[in-house]
Each structure stands twice: as structure tokens, then as C-alpha cells.
Design brief:
The complex is a heterodimer of chains A (278) and B (270). Chain A is mostly helical. Chain A has helices spanning 3-34, 51-58, 61-91, 97-104, 111-122, 129-135, 139-143, 146-170, 174-182, 187-215, 219-223, 226-232, 234-244, 248-273. Chain B has 270 residues and is mainly alpha-helical. In chain B, 78% of the residues lie in helices and 2% in strands. Chain B is built from 11 helices and 2 strands; from the N terminus they run αββαααααααααα. Chain B has a two-stranded antiparallel ribbon with strand order 1-2. Chain B is globular and about 80 Å long. The relative contact order of chain B is 0.13. Classes of the chains: A mainly alpha (278), B mainly alpha (270). At the A-B interface, helix 1, helix 3, helix 4, helix 5 and helix 8 of A face helix 1, helix 3, helix 4, helix 5 and helix 6 of B.
């Protein structure tokens, strides 16, 4: 192998690496640096401190709890509805399968429209308002309830969950299920003892991916879920601390912790779902 | 073999479930469209009207053009950078390949708000020239490059290297081989990346929201959000949200009619 051959992949990769280093790694390093400075002092005369991280526990502990409760609940909703969906999509659906696949791309348009859509659905006089009225529940209360925020978040992360579960279901050799049936297991027993355990990595991956994406949601917590969620979800909190209170140190510290948690989550979900392509 | 009644029933329930869940995923889109054409008339009652779409002509469409222009420029840059990089990942073995791919993967996983805040800091402190139109392009090019890489890697894996080898055996140079053999073969894969980047960059909200302050450029999704928080639910806001979703949907449908789902499966769809 000549040196020229060795350099070839490097030349092909250089622009990509430069782009990611310049606009991803360097900014993240900056975020890390700013998180160790007081308020916006980094821009003038940096005052180094670890206080921002101490605040994470004492001041923002409750916000972490609320945020994680919300995204973990949404992730469970994704699993409950996503597993049968992925199972049917990979095993049963032949006709119209591309129509359903196309619909799975719609939540990717973004959480903004999901937030707006559900927001309007629950408005008094909105299209589903009459259901709440019939049930004797105030629609406004429903709109600002935690459950609504969880459902909206679950819709946003649903395609990623279905994708992860579906990939692992496709990876199961059908012959193994058939042998279980041949050996006398009923369809329920085959499912519980063979299919479910074998798709567990995908389920785990789906759960983690859903949490990771939920952590970054901004429009859904801002518009739904009531004061509790809209003021204390970490993504919203980061925005208001950084740009309204100009406390960049604290906002960066929240950012660093969220990013670390997300990267750890995704590391394990990639491992679980064997989602790596290379 | 004719399916039994029990099997038919199972099939029916399966389809009903998938259709029901799909319909629920479409609720936000359907609601936006319905709301956008339901206009209250003075004296009570509502009528169907496309008036709101004319109302937003002047204030909203320039922002849609801005978002379209940002999305298309991002696609051009990511194609130019992503295709060669994907080629290197598939066709060459080099030290640190997996580690590099995992690192590039990382960007997809950092929550949007963290990425957006770190970019704002970097723009203020290091890249002052990015506090404008090109700041959006830079952010999205780096943020969505992974999608182009993944779809192109899938596409390159479908292409047998023997075609390229035969072309060069028959006397084609490296560039001729790439443009006349490889590129036509991976075209659909590249187009899948183009589709995904379009849908995400055109509708991207959180980075654009944070960049809105320093750059004074407002993309269409940020305008929708600003209007929702200011005026809550009026038909013209629904029309704005509907326009963006319908443009995205039209692009998705055109893509699926022409190319199909083959190159999206294994990347984002099962």
C-alpha cells in the first residue's frame, strides 16, 4: 500500500472532519469552558468557578426530576404503542406499507407543529373540545395537564422508537420462532419466550432514543403542560437563563450535563440496538 | 391456501391498529389545515374560507423563501461534503474508522438546545462572521451532515465495487468512473439524504430561534412559534403552520413516488 493510497480516505474525509470539528467540537468545548465561569464574565474577564455545578443539585434538582419524569413517561408510551406498531409493520403489513412509512416521516417535521396541533385540539371550542365537555373535564385543564405534554412528546419521538424496535424485530431469524412452534409452543408462549426476549435490545434502544430526543424538546413544554412544565423543563430553562437572564455560566452547565446524559444514553442505545452502520 | 376467518380477523385488527396510530400521528397536520380554513364571521358562526392564506402572503412568504433558501444551500454543502466522506467510510479501511464515525454520530444525539447554545457562544467569541445568514447554513450543515453520510453509506453498500473496477479496467479515469458509474448508481441514496436534510433544515426551530436574536433573521418556523406565543390560535397562524407542513409533505410524497422507501429503510424507517 503506497502512501498515496493511505492518504486517499483522508482527503475524502477532510472537509467532513473540518466541518464537525469547527462547528461541533469547538463549540461544545466552549460550552464546557463557559460552564465554569460566573454569569457572563467569560465575555469580559472570566471569573472561574464551580458554583454553577453545585447549583445543579441545590437549585435545579427539581427541574431535573420534572424533565426526566416527563421524558421517561413519554418513552414508555412510545414502547406501549410502538412495539405492536413495529411488530405489525414488520410481520403483517404488505399492502399500503409505504403509506404508513410515509406517515412515520411526518412527526420529523418537528415538535413545533405537534405542539400547535395538540394545543388547538384541546382548546375550548376546538375539534375535540366537545369530548372533554361531555366527560365533564375542563378542556383547558386537560391542555395544561402533564398527560397532554407526555402524549405530545410521545408523538414526537414515536418514529425513532418504532425504527429501533422494527430493526431488531427484522433481525430475528424467523426459523427460531418456527422451531419453537414446531416444538409445541403456542403463539403466546413463542412470543413471550422467543420473540420478546430477542427484541429486547431494540426495545431498550427505542426507550433510550425516545428519552434522548425528548430532552431536547422545546416547543412542546413551552406551549403545553402548564406552568410546572413550561417553566421548569430544562430545555426551556436553559433558554431563559442564557438569553433572558444572561447567566451564560449556569445555562452552559445545564447544557453540559444534558449533553453528557444524552451522549451516555445514545452510547448505550447504539450498543443495544446495534444501530451502527460502519 | 385460503386464509381462515381467524387469520382474516387478525389481519383486520392489525391494519386497524396501524391505521389508527398513523391517524393519531397526523392529528397535528390535519388540525392545522382544518383550523386554517375555519374563519369566524361577524355575528357568530364560522365559514370555510381560504382567506387566511391570502392574509399571510406579505408577512409570511418572505420567511418561507428564507427557510427554503437555507435548506437548499445546506443540502448542496452536505452533498458535496457527505458523498466523498461516505465513499471513504465504505470503500477504505483505515485506523480509527469506527471511532470517527461514532464521533460524527455524536452530533445527532446532543439535544438541540445544547447544540444551539454552544453555537451561539462560538459565533459570538470565535466566528463573528457567522452572525448572519451563513450562520444558519453552517449550523445546519454540521448538524445534518450525519443524515447524508448514513443514507450514502447505505447506498454505497448496495453498489458492487466490480462496476467501478470494470469501468477503470476499460480505461475510464477516476473522475469519469465516479461521475458516469458510481454517482448514477448511488443517486437514489443521495436523494434520500437530500430529502431528510430538507425536511429537517426547512422546519428546524430551536437553533433558528436562538440565532434569531443576534442575526435578526427570522425563519418561517420561528415566525410560527412567535405568532403562537403572541396570538395563540387564530386561523392565520394555523395557515402558517399548515403551509410549512404541506410543503414538507409535498416534498416527501414526490420523493416517495419517484424513489420509494428503499433508501430510507435502515436509516430512519423499518
Amino acid at each position: 500500500v503506497t502512501i498515496r493510497d493511505r492518504l486517499k480516505p483522508l482527503t475524502l474525509l477532510t472537509p467532513a472532519i473540518a466541518l464537525e470539528v469547527g462547528l461541533f467540537f469547538i463549540p461544545l468545548v466552549l460550552l464546557g469552558l463557559v460552564s465554569f465561569t460566573s454569569r457572563d464574565s467569560f465575555f469580559f474577564q472570566p471569573i472561574w468557578t464551580t458554583e454553577n455545578y453545585a447549583d445543579m443539585v441545590t437549585v435545579y434538582g427539581f427541574d431535573f426530576q420534572i424533565t426526566f419524569m416527563l421524558v421517561i413517561l413519554a418513552a414508555f408510551v412510545d414502547l406501549i404503542f410502538g412495539f405492536p406498531f413495529a411488530y405489525i409493520m414488520t410481520r403483517r403489513v404488505r399492502k399500503f406499507s409505504d403509506v404508513f412509512r410515509a406517515i412515520m416521516l411526518v412527526p420529523l417535521f418537528g415538535e413545533l407543529y405537534i405542539a400547535y396541533g395538540f394545543y388547538y385540539v384541546f382548546l375550548p371550542g376546538g375539534p375535540l373540545g366537545f369530548i372533554f365537555e361531555a366527560l365533564g373535564v375542563s378542556a383547558v385543564k386537560a391542555m395544561y395537564s402533564l398527560q397532554t405534554a407526555v402524549i405530545a412528546l410521545a408523538v414526537y419521538t414515536f418514529p425513532f422508537a418504532v425504527y429501533n424496535i422494527g430493526i431488531s424485530l427484522q433481525g430475528i431469524d424467523r426459523a427460531i420462532e418456527d422451531s419453537a412452534r414446531c416444538l409445541g409452543a403456542g403463539s403466546v408462549e413463542t412470543f413471550v419466550k422467543v420473540t420478546l426476549p430477542m427484541s429486547l435490545p431494540g426495545i431498550m434502544g427505542a426507550w433510550l432514543v425516545s428519552i434522548g430526543w425528548g430532552l431536547g424538546a422545546f416547543a412542546i413544554p413551552t406551549l403545553m403542560g402548564g406552568a410546572m412544565v413550561s417553566q421548569r423543563m430544562l430545555s426551556v430553562e436553559m433558554y431563559s437563563i442564557a438569553l433572558l437572564q444572561l447567566d451564560l455560566g449556569t445555562a452552559s452547565a445545564i447544557g453540559v450535563i444534558l449533553a453528557l446524559i444524552a451522549v451516555i444514553i445514545f452510547y448505550f442505545s447504539l450498543k443495544a440496538s446495534k444501530g451502527a452502520l460502519v | 391456501v385460503k386464509p381462515t376467518d381467524a387469520e382474516k380477523a387478525k389481519q383486520f385488527v392489525s391494519y386497524a391498529y396501524v391505521a389508527g396510530v398513523s391517524l393519531f400521528l397526523l392529528v397535528p397536520l390535519i388540525v392545522s389545515v382544518i383550523r386554517s380554513v375555519t374563519v369566524a364571521v361577524p355575528g357568530g358562526g364560522t365559514i370555510l374560507s381560504i382567506e387566511p392564506y391570502f392574509d399571510i402572503m406579505e408577512s409570511f412568504w418572505p420567511k418561507v423563501y428564507l427557510s427554503l433558501s437555507i435548506a437548499i444551500t445546506t443540502i448542496l454543502i452536505d452533498t458535496a461534503i457527505g458523498v466523498p466522506a461516505a465513499y471513504a467510510f465504505v470503500r477504505y479501511n483505515f485506523r480509527g474508522k469506527r471511532a470517527l464515525f461514532t464521533l460524527i454520530n455524536g452530533i445527532w444525539y446532543v439535544p438541540g438546545i445544547c447544540y444551539a447554545l454552544s453555537l451561539i457562544l462560538a459565533y459570538y467569541l470565535l466566528y463573528k462572521w457567522f452572525l448572519g445568514y451563513w450562520g444558519f447554513i453552517a449550523a445546519y450543515s454540521a448538524g445534518f451532515l450525519l443524515l447524508m453520510l448514513m443514507t450514502c453509506i447505505v447506498a454505497f453498500k448496495y453498489v458492487d465495487p466490480c462496476y467501478e473496477e470494470s469501468a477503470s479496467c476499460l480505461g475510464a479515469g477516476r473522475f469519469t468512473t465516479f461521475f458516469k458509474v458510481t454517482l448514477p448508481l448511488i443517486g437514489p441514496g443521495v436523494s434520500a439524504g437530500v430529502l431528510l436534510i430538507f425536511v429537517l433544515a426547512f422546519n428546524e426551530f430551536i437553533t433558528a430561534f436562538l440565532l434569531n436574536l443576534p442575526t435578526r433573521l427570522m425563519t418561517a418556523p420561528v415566525k410560527v412559534f412567535a405568532d403562537i406565543t403572541r396570538a395563540r390560535s387564530t386561523p392565520y397562524i394555523a395557515a402558517e403552520a399548515a403551509v410549512l407542513q404541506l410543503i414538507s409533505l409535498a416534498v416527501v410524497i414526490i420523493y416517495l413516488r419517484v424513489v420509494g422507501t428503499k433508501y430510507l429503510r435502515g436509516v430512519i424507517l423499518v
